[in-house]
Amino acid sequence: EPEATPSGPLSTVRAALDLCRDKAESKKVGVYAVPHYSQVALGSAFGPLALPDVLLFCRGLDAALSGLEEGSRLVLTTPRGNREYRSNAAVLLGAYLVARHQWTPWQVESALGGREAKARFARSWSRTSDEPEDKWVLSVRDCWEGVALARDLRVLTPEMLQDDAQVQAACATYEHQVSRYDCTWIVPGMVMVGADPVTVLHDPASGTCSQLLPQAELATASEETSDGAAWEETLVDTVCRDFSSRVPAGSPRSAGSPEDLDYASFLQSLGVGLVLRANLDREKGMPTKSYKDNAFEPFGISHANVRVVDTLGGFPRREDFARIIKVAREFWERRPEGAVFLHCKGGFGRSVLFACCLTVERLDVSGRALLGWARIARPGAFTTRRQELFLAGLKGREDVRRAAGLRPDCGEVEERAATSCAGCAVQ
After folding, report:
1. What angle do the packed helices 367-377 and 51-66 form, to 10 degrees?
2. What confidence tens digit (pLDDT) does each residue in 4-52 have?
3. How confident is the model at residue 205 (pLDDT cuts 50, 70, 90)?
4. How far apart are CA 344 and CA 321, in angstroms?
5. CA angle 194–195–200, rounded 5-degree value
6. Could you tell me the pTM of the whole model?
7. Strand ordering across the sheet containing 302-305
8. H or E segment at 355?
9. Is the distance from CB of 102 to CB of 40 less than 8 angstroms?
10. Which domains does the chain have, with CATH numbers?
């Protein structure tokens, strides 16, 4: 944000976020958004930008630098006084250095400065009046740590960011999964998070999935779940999409393509072998009751419920963390290469926290890095400050096991572990 814009024959000046558009097939990039939700619903949240923006910025910057004449330089600018724009630009520039040039987050901070690294982002869905800036948890540096994690897991590679076709393919896959099925990989091939499939089927947006099962299986899809109707009452809703223009499930929406599968076949095609449901069968904001417990069994997909009441955003009890670890561990012992799909009503908050905890426990990675990565991979990821603080406090596998009341060395249940956490409400 210089006092005077550098100019002259040796300088090419670009607005930082415009680089997202250089390689984009759509102009709706470089702006914070949560798919399926209006801008008004996002509250005071302004970033970080989503994974396609990261990919497109990195590819755009790489191409812009490659096209410079010898001896010239590229200057990226941000609007004077616009901290939100600047923070998003700092995340993207750091992501480029980390993913494309193998820098560490510490090296990025040394180059760009501590002020940039310490800048923070409002919680998703937050209102300025109820959460002051000094309470924001996610920092720009956390996002760099998240990109470094994605690089180490080979989600982002230098080779990808040098190739237009690979970037476009990655963006197209991401957009297809988000727009049609409202789900996102946290770790590709291992942990995916999303909304309850039933809420997706009733989304009024054109192109969303409209069928839970193949046509031959639809007759059994709406039978009672084993938990009955006791789960339906006294819920406080935090994030709720608008179904006012809903299209009935099964109605034609678009011409479709071979990749536009019903939800069960979609999960099967990704190698998902276990679905973990964190929401109740019916919650305020759900257009209809959730699917029955054994709906996906004919497709080789097992299912378990770890119900967390959506009160003030929902926070699991200790035994709930222990249960998801146990169920997922048993699944991965049977199918080491299989993937787990976790969902709650909207695919934010409860399910994302569970997904991140499973990732920390299995890969022994930093919770702060996952906080940054989840906010990029799944805009809107967390619904409360408490969820973000909890994840940020996890240094690795042992911390997750302690939080679940398990022995840090082996993950077995501690006999004297507390059975609940103050302030949690779970049935």
Report:
1. 90
2. 455 555 789 999 999 999 888 776 789 999 999 998 899 899 999 999 9
3. confident
4. 15
5. 125
6. 0.87
7. 183-187, 191-195, 339-344, 272-277, 302-305
8. helix 350-363
9. no
10. 11-170 (3.90.190.10), 182-364+396-403 (3.90.190.10)
